[in-house]
Amino acid sequence: MSMSQEAAETIALQALGWLAGNADLLPVFLGSTGAVVDDLRERVGDADFLGSILDFVMMDDAWVTQFCDTAGLSYEMPMMARAVLPGGKKVYWT
């Protein structure tokens, strides 16, 4: 199944909304990425930033599960969306 860039960005924006509403996890994201709250508003149209949000969420299976359950998405959707956004292509080292 292929996904458009627009659909991938929509999923990343949903992840951003979920993350922004999570008082425990948002500071972890900000601390680990060096982003500040203003970046969340200013960079919502930046596909690279949206990719970093999905990268962060996908660091923990529990976060993926919580986000997908909240958003009504299947669990593989964040990974599929990340693959479409800049920097998300798998690298094959063979």
Order of helices and strands: HHHHHH
Enumerate the spans where pLDDT stays under 50 for 5 or more consecutive residues. none
Domain tally: 1
Binned strand content? under 5%
DSSP helix fraction: 55-70%
> Number of helix segments?
6
Number of strands: 0
- Judged by helices, strands and strand pairing, the structural class is mainly alpha
Describe this structure in words.
With 94 residues, the protein is mainly α. It has one domain. The chain is 64% helix and 0% strand. The chain is built from six helices and no strands. The chain has helices spanning 5-20, 26-33, 37-42, 47-57, 61-71, 77-84. The two termini are 25 Å apart. The mean pLDDT is 89.
In short:
Helices cover 64% and strands 0% of the residues.
Characteristic terms for this protein:
94 residues, mainly alpha
Strand and helix layout:
Blueprint: H1 5-20, H2 26-33, H3 37-42, H4 47-57, H5 61-71, H6 77-84
Helix pairs in contact: 1-4, 1-6, 4-6
